[in-house]
Amino acid sequence: MTDSTPATGHGAPKLRLGLRNDNDDGWGYAPAPESTDHVELRDRYGLFIDGEFTDAKGGRTFETANPATEEKIADVALASDADVDAAVAAARRAYDEVWSQLAPRERGKYVYRIARVLQERGRELAITESLDGGKPIRESRDVDIPLAAAHFFYYAGWADKLDYAFPGRGARSLGVAGQVIPWNFPLLMAAWKIAPAIAAGNTVVLKPAETTPLTALKLAEIIQDAGVPPGVVNIVTGAGETGAAVVQHEDVDKVAFTGSTEVGKLIRRALAGSGKHYTLELGGKAANLVFEDAAVDQAVEGIVNGIFFNQGHVCCAGSRLLVQESVADEVISKLKDRMETLIVGDPLDKNTDIGAINSRAQLDRIEEYLKIGEEEGAEPFQTSCPVPDRGYWCRPTLFLHAAQSHRVVQEEIFGPVLAVQTFRTVDEGIAMANNTPYGLSGGVWSDKGAKAFRVTSRIRAGVLWANTYNKFDPTAPFGGYKESGIGREGGLAGLHAYLQPEEAA
Amino acid sequence: MQMSPSGARIESPPIDAVGVEERVARLCSRSIKKDAKLQALHLTLSMIDLTTLEGADSEGKVRQLCAKALQLHAALPDLPHVAAVCVYPALVGVAKRALDGSGINVASVATSFPAGQAPIEIKLLEVRKAIEAGADEVDMVISRGRFLAGDFAYTADEIASVKEACGDAHLKVILETGELGTLDAIRRASDLAMRSGADFIKTSTGKIKPAATMPVVLVMLEAIRDHYLRTGEKIGMKPAGGISTAKDAIRHLVMVRETLGQDWLDPDLYRFGASSLANDVLRQIVKQRSGIYQSFDDFSL
Question: Which among A21, A257, A490, B32 counts the fewest CB atoms within 10 Å?
């Protein structure tokens, strides 16, 4: 074989791949919905402060809805400044009187207990996550919930070993942590934030995203059931104002934020000179570099996992595909074929690959970028998969022939939209990968091990994957360069962010 | 690209084994229910090469097998028939007479199955004898020793001469993947076989383990897809050995569906080489229709 480029043009061989295409009369998959029978959801959820669920002072609420049906699921309390005050006060009291006084091994027992109950209630949590946030059940079941439990297990193990984690430093907790998390991995982000904080001896006030508060509130139930002392974990729900109140509260010692770069900048400004510790995990526009010596079919799979995982609502998504010119036609043609087999639809269907876009606002934002990409001159490609009539949906999309100067290449879209560019030499590929204000993650595809190491060491990003993408583990640090944030979460580095040396305490 | 001692070149893309396993795991997460499941079960039956390849095979055993092929389950008269019955060359005549007029093909292994360690003249003679006796399809084995030694020209010539001896009969080329060692070698052997005249590529003899594992089959399907996209020629696939349950078979169909598309879900392009698969599929069909699992004793051998 000398010519590996697929034939093109009229009458070229074509695969009949669409799995739910209406005009394809062959064998397709019947709906396989996950049953929601045993999942109990309340009509109304309160704030979780000092170990109890309470209404917001003044009784304000907001609605959380299912993005796949646009139907309301529950009313959720909207925390005011006074509620945040109460939560921080409870956290301070719990820190001073209970949590910081507790033997580290006892602290660890509580964290282990949370991990175990997360596993036991895994199915219920996965369904709730898919209902409230729109992500496919395959992902909430196989990724979000097991990883959330794994984070609690991992950090529980460190609770009584802090002196060994940082020998000679006399690691001491910081106090009260104020934490604000996004809507893309609601329970997993809560786990990333809460597990290292409380294992290290801090107490927390956590604010979940307003479109996806339910699994964090179920986590609050689990924390209550696990007998964790009141006030160690407090959860206040609300939108940006509530988050700002948490972050700026004067009795908060440490701020941990995951979200947009825009808000991250505001937070960093607000915290300047305050003496508070902080970690910010922000946006990204990662490049996935495919070299001519890559295993093409596996690279295509990695490209798909890189951008279409969780509808592309992933800060470390491989949203820029940089493919070497000599294999570009083959890679793109195979990528299109693979995309035709992606099923968009009901998040609770076990065969769904791409669920609902998280909110109307996010769908509007993505659609705006689809317009921008076309106006800028990139060539759009979307698959033929049918999508439901109601709810927020976006078919997997490519922008071919995108240019480095295009906004769809420079800006984070946070949707199932991949900008495709080509490069000729290794140096050019690396230069394009680094030509971004972000630096969170990246991927390299090559069958040559030495090349993979050489290239990854020259890409300025916090997380790099070689011949795989979007792999997460509680033992691995995660975080970005440049506008992708500051500090690391996960692993020992993530523990370190909740500790200080004894002399500083 | 590798250069063989005789100068033949073969260029195949590299395969990342970890990535292949990941893709297989994802394909296995498809949930096939209700109508889709029943349809898949019927499809599976129509793709089976009902096989007996034992030293102890007798005329009686083969007639028994052919009778099963003609009537899979007396209680379900509306089932599709299997694609073929697969036997040794000496028993092709018996099978041919038993299946006369049924539309079920007779396939014969040949070329000194399963080891393939015989002179080429003897292999070709065996193929001609099988065809003379009425075989519609020939399942050959490649000389794995020569292939592993890098003598790709020999392997290519061997396949081409067997193809010539087959005449109009369909040629399935058995790679014996369990002896090739790596997915890279399996991909290379697949490419070589397709370019040398194979109508089908087949994983295994069933005498060596591992046989038709999902990663191996996926790599072969991808080779078939690439060959089709390049030439427009549709090569068939036959996993054989180790597929014994309906669940396994449905997973294979999912893999075919998402790699090669609708066109390959056809007995002309996909076969299961299996001896015990049919009854498990029949049992599942009865379960889908009645809601109740029946004893294995309710299904004939």
Answer: A21
